[in-house]
Design a protein that fits this description.
By secondary structure, this protein is α/β, with parallel strands linked by helices. It has helices at 17-28, 62-74, 140-143, 159-169, 188-196, 248-252, 288-312, 326-335; strands at 5-13, 33-37, 84-87, 90-94, 99-102, 106-114, 118-120, 136-137, 151-155, 174-179, 200-203, 205-212, 216-223, 229-233, 236-239, 243-245, 257-258, 261-262, 275-277, 320-321, 324-325.
Length: 336
């Protein structure tokens, strides 16, 4: 074994609702579990302003729900399950050696779960890529301090867009929200709050181009009903135009895909042995509750997988793993 490599039973890449839910089940079953997250814990769930469809969680800020999940996963028993969480960026996963390499460490696992979630889409308009970090962003919660005293344009029509506009309003001198349709997709209560907080909303407007020298200075807007164009002076543009599965790592690993998503079976197994996937990177509905459920299935499947691998090697264990004793797993192998 390489001297500086750290061994774990389960390595989970991604600390959104799917990854955290999986960790609860693997850690409770006694498997040493490490979760690795490169950005913020909670993924898209942590920036959802209002979560109203998660059972047992009265309508409220998604950040609170994800903070509760994080505590349940990382706090020592009995307050939590005691899994380990590290803020590191994964740059490679060797599916043959089961080694996860981050920018600072190397970890070897017996099973790996990909729960890399989704990320904000870009529009691909002129100037967008040029000004990323210099007046263009996709997460208001992360860049809010940069908005101080600035004129901020927020683009989109959903609840995340509304939350981004409200976050920007706490720092910016002025916030304008533009949406390409005649009405927002966000909850009516959210739209009312935007109006109450003084966010200017303009409908049937699309951003055509972003202009500036070293930083954003202007945007070109087009009215998609009349076709008329105008230039607006702004300092920051925040895009909230939907998400797409974050599958770059999965593709790099050579996992079998199903369109834009990672292909899995009913136990969240991918095309590579010992590699599982769950959450927004697999086909299915895009809700917090679905991601959490996927994580539960992945965690249970991994526990069974690791128990079977132990028994195959002639190793027995005390107690149960995923509800079965070692002799029951042995009987399963004999039947196969």
């Amino acid at each position: 074994m390489e001297k500086n490599i750290k061994e774990k039973d389960v390595i989970i890449v991604g600390a959104g609702p799917a990854g955290l839910s999986a960790a609860i089940f693997t850690q409770l079953d006694g498997w040493n579990t490490l979760i690795i997250e490169s950005d913020w814990v909670g993924g898209q769930g942590a920036i959802a302003y209002t979560v109203a469809n998660y059972p047992g969680f009265p309508p409220g800020d998604g950040k609170v729900l994800m903070e509760n999940m994080e505590k349940q996963v990382t706090l020592s028993p009995p307050a939590g399950v005691g899994a380990e969480l590290k803020q590191e960026k994964v740059i490679n996963i060797d599916t043959d050696e089961m080694v996860v390499t981050t920018e600072t460490n190397r970890y070897k696992g017996k099973a790996i779960i990909l729960a890399t979630g989704s990320k904000m889409q870009n529009l691909g308009i002129p100037g967008e890529r040029k000004f990323i970090g210099k007046g263009v962003s996709y997460y208001a919660v992360r860049d809010s301090e940069k908005f101080t005293g600035k004129r901020v344009l927020v683009v989109g029509g959903g609840n995340t867009t509304a939350k981004s506009a409200l976050i920007a309003k706490t720092e910016a001198s002025e916030v304008i929200l533009v949406h390409r349709r005649e009405a927002m997709r966000a909850y009516p209560a959210m739209v009312k709050r935007l109006q109450k907080e003084g966010v200017k909303i303009r409908y049937n407007i699309e951003v055509k181009e972003i202009k500036g020298e070293d930083e954003v200075e202007k945007v070109v807007l087009v009215n998609n009903k009349t076709g008329t164009e105008e230039e607006m002076t702004v300092n920051w543009v925040v895009f909230c135009v939907g998400t797409r599965p974050n599958t770059e790592l999965a593709r790099k690993m050579g996992l079998e895909m199903m369109g834009d998503f990672v292909k899995v079976d009913e136990q969240m197994k991918t095309s590579r042995k010992g590699i599982f996937a769950c959450g927004d990177i697999i086909p299915g509905p895009r809700h917090l509750i679905n991601a959490a459920a996927d994580g539960v299935l992945a965690g249970m499947a991994i526990s069974e997988y690791l128990a079977l691998e132990m028994v195959k090697m002639g190793e027995m264990f005390i107690g149960a793993k995923n509800g079965k004793y070692a002799d029951e797993y042995l009987a399963m192998l004999k039947r196969d």
